[in-house]
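General statements about sequence and structure are easier to judge against a single worked case. For one protein, we set the task of working out the C-alpha cells from the amino acid sequence alone. The sequence in question and its C-alpha cells are set out directly beneath this paragraph.
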Amino acid sequence: MIRRIFSALLTICALASPAGNRAWAKDELVLAMTQTPGTWNPLISSMLAKSLIANMTARPLTAYDADWKLVCLACTELPTLQNGKARVIDLPDDGKGGGKKGMEVDVELRDLRWGDGTPVSSKDVAFTLEVGKHPLSGVASSEGYKRVLKLDVKDDRRFTMTIDRVTFDYNSIGFLLLPAHIEKPIFDANPAEYRNKTAYDTNSTNPGLAFGPYRIVEIVPGSRIALEQNPTWTGQKPHFKRIVVKIIENTAALEANLLSGSVDYVLGELGLSLDQAIAFEKRHGAKYNVVYKPALIWEHIDANLDNKLLADRRVRQALLLAIDRKAISEKLFDGKQPIAHGGISELDPMFSPAARQYGYDPTAAKKLLDEAGFATLRNNVRQNAAGDRLSIELGTTAGNRVRELVAQVIQSQLRQVGVEVRIKAEPPRIFFEAMGRRTYSGLGMYAWVQRPEGVPRSSLHSKEIPSAENAWSGQNYPGYANPEMDKALDAAERELDIDKRRALFAEIQRLAADDLPSLPLFFRVDPFVIPKALKGVTPTGTLNSSTLWVEQWRWEN
C-alpha cells in the first residue's frame, strides 16, 4: 500500500511539472547568435562567431577566466618562471653577434582525446605550429607560431617550446590545436590550398575534429549548428545532451525568437544589442537575469590607408572630431557604453590617460580638413585642388540594427563638415573577407575582442599587414606602418618589468591616438540576458568567451 501511494505521488508530481521545465528533462539547449562563421578551421580567419562554437568543441592550452586570470585548460599546470617550468635562456649564436635571450617553456597536455578516440598529443602541437608558421597556410596571424624556434617533444603529452625572445606573456598560449591525423595529409598535399581543403569545412561533422565537451553533428549554412556531447571528452560531463545554435542575423528577430520560446538563450557575446537589452529588461526582467558586462571589446572604424583620401592623418583626425560619440552613447546606449579613446580599455591595467583624447569639435574638424587640402565645398561635399571629392564608403556588418543605426548617425554628422559617407552593410562573412584581404575601399566598422594586457601587435605592427605575399595573414587591416610603433610594440612584449612595460604601452597609445589608423568609438558593454533557469553562464568580457566553460551550464527550474 505504501509503495502504491508513493508511486501515485510521483506520478502526480510528474504531471504537475511540465517535462520541459524539469532540470533532468532539459536535454537540449537552443541558443542563438547573429553571425555565421566563414570557416570552421580555428587557425584561419578571426570571427567571434567561430570562436563561440570552437570553444565548445575544443580548448586552447591557456585562457583568461572570468576574473581575467590566466589558467590552464588543455594543459595540466601553468608554466611560470617561479615554478621552474619556464626559463630565460641564451639562444645559440645566429652569426650576427649573438647575445640574444630567449625562453624555454615546459608544457604537459591534459589527458584528452579527439572525438574519434585518437589521443590529443604532442604531434598535434607540432603540426599546429607547422601550419601556423607556413607562409602560404592562410592563418589569421602567424607571428606567435613563428616565434617558436624549436619544439622538443619529450613524449606524447610533454614538450618544451623554445621561444625566440623574452616576453612577459610567455605562458599565454592561446592557440587551438589541429588534429594531425586528419589535417596533416591535407596540408602536406598542398599548403597553399589548405585553407580551401581543410576538413573543418569539407567534413565539418567529422568527430575527430573535436576534443571538447561537444562535437558538431550538423551544420545548415546560415541557419543552425547542432552539437552533441562528445563521448571521448575527459573533463566534467556537460549537462545538456544536445545544443543547437541558431543563426538569426537580424537582432529584432532575435528578440522575437527569445520571447516566443523557440530560443532558450541568446549568446551575450554576439546577440542582443545593448539598447535592446535595456528595453527588454524593463519589460521582461522578472523572467531573466540581465548582466551588463564591461568588455575588452573595441568598436572602431578602420581606415584603409591605401585610399588617398584617408592617407593624411589630419583627415582621419577630422573625421573623429566630427563624430559626437558621447551623444551616440547617451541616446543609443543609455550612457552605458563608454567612449573609447584607443584600443586599450580604461579597465585594462595598461591603459594610459596621457594619450590624446578627441572630443566632439566640428569646428576643429573643418579646420583640419582645410589644412589637408579639402577646402573647397561643392554640392555640400569637400574636394581638393585635384577635384577629388571627399566621398568615402563606410562598410559594416548587416543585420545588427544598432550598428547600422550608428553608421547612419555618423553619416549624418560627417555630412555637417562636408564629408560624404556611403554606407555599405554586408553579411558578416563577406564583410570580414573584404577586411582581411584589404579590399574594402575606405572605412570599415566592426569590433576587436582583446585579452587583458595584450600587446596590440597584430593590428598595429607593419609586419601584420595582410597581403598576397603572406597569404593574407595578419590583422593590420588599415595597412598602418610606423617604425616608432613597431619599436614600441616589440619592446613592450619583451619587457618583464611591469612599470617599464606600462611606459611602453603609454607610447603605443600615444602613437595610435596621433596617427589614428583606426577611429575609436566605444568599448562595448555586452548584455547577457540569461533565463533564470539557466545557471553557470559566466560572462568574461575578453576574447576567451563564456562558452569555454559550457560544461558548467545547467538548467534548474
In short: The domain at 63-187 is CATH 3.90.76.10 (Dipeptide-binding Protein; domain 1). Confidence is low (pLDDT under 50) at residues 1-24.
